[in-house]
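Researcher: I'd like a structural prediction for the single chain below. Treat it as a standalone chain; there are no partners to consider.
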Amino acid sequence: MASRSADARVWRAPSIIDVAREAGVSAQTVSRVANGMDIVRPSTRDKVQAAMDRLGYRPNSAARALKTGKFRTLGVIMSGLSSYGNMRSLEAIANEAAKAGYSLALTPLWTIAQAGFSGAFVRLAEQAVDGVLVVLEAHELEASDLAHIADIPAVVVTTGDSHPYPSIDIDQAQGARLATEHLLNLGHRTVSHISGPGDSFSARDRAASWEATLRAHGREVPPLQHGDWSTASGYAAGRILAADPSVTAVFAANDEMALGAMRALRDAGRTVPDEVSVVGFDDMGMSADFQPPLTTVHQYFDRVGAAAVSMLIDQIEHRPAQNPGPVATELVERASTAPPPPSMRTTGATR
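Model: Treating it as a single chain, here is the predicted structure.
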């Protein structure tokens, strides 16, 4: 068996002393840079960072946590990753957390369904997080569950206010109003609606705003068509609407149901938008590629993520929390909406 040569060296990870020597600064300065303190001159910070990169030095996060009492980690509890809204929210949260120097510990609620929210929270607590972002619909939260986060900074990203914690969400009512008024302004006598599931607060808010907008304009409120966010449910509702010749405008509570509704209308021989206009809600990346391109309500998930992370870090740093209120939406007009046929049109159309 070959023996190790006398001049062989055992590799060891570079230390803070090695970095200080390489950068020509004190170990205290290296520690300040490693801990993200802002009292180091930018030129010195750059020099220390360059030395860290050359040596492959990585700060010891565990030791730093013991010293500062912070783990630089935010926990995220989310109901699932399949929906468009959840994926965009998580992407925005991850980007904003990274900008602030935090990592994420994600616990999808469905992975521990039997344990529920309590189990998710316990799991995150074991991972030593500085705060928690709860991305759940309000109906998924119980008061008893929320009591678990009383002793840790938390922000709830949800619709509904049945809890005492700081929260942030899209202005669902404003978005639905924009969609409904857009169709009325084109000259449609009324607007049919395909809602999301009944236990969803965001779906309920959109449906309530649709109805309130119609009543405010003195228009008939058609029977509500129920969906479950899926393209298939939009198609099923669209078949019902397509069979009614008085239907000239449809507002679907998300883009996937709008896509299903447009396919049902085409299958029934009713053209979009010449005979029936369709508006969605979300502005998915593919919505501009629908045939025809979909008019829809754009949700600014990046702004929600930025606000949620900022509110949580304010709590962690013991700063006064600034709640910006609901994040406004924007109507994106594309080719799926137009004035109705002349015989079905009201006066005062704007287009």
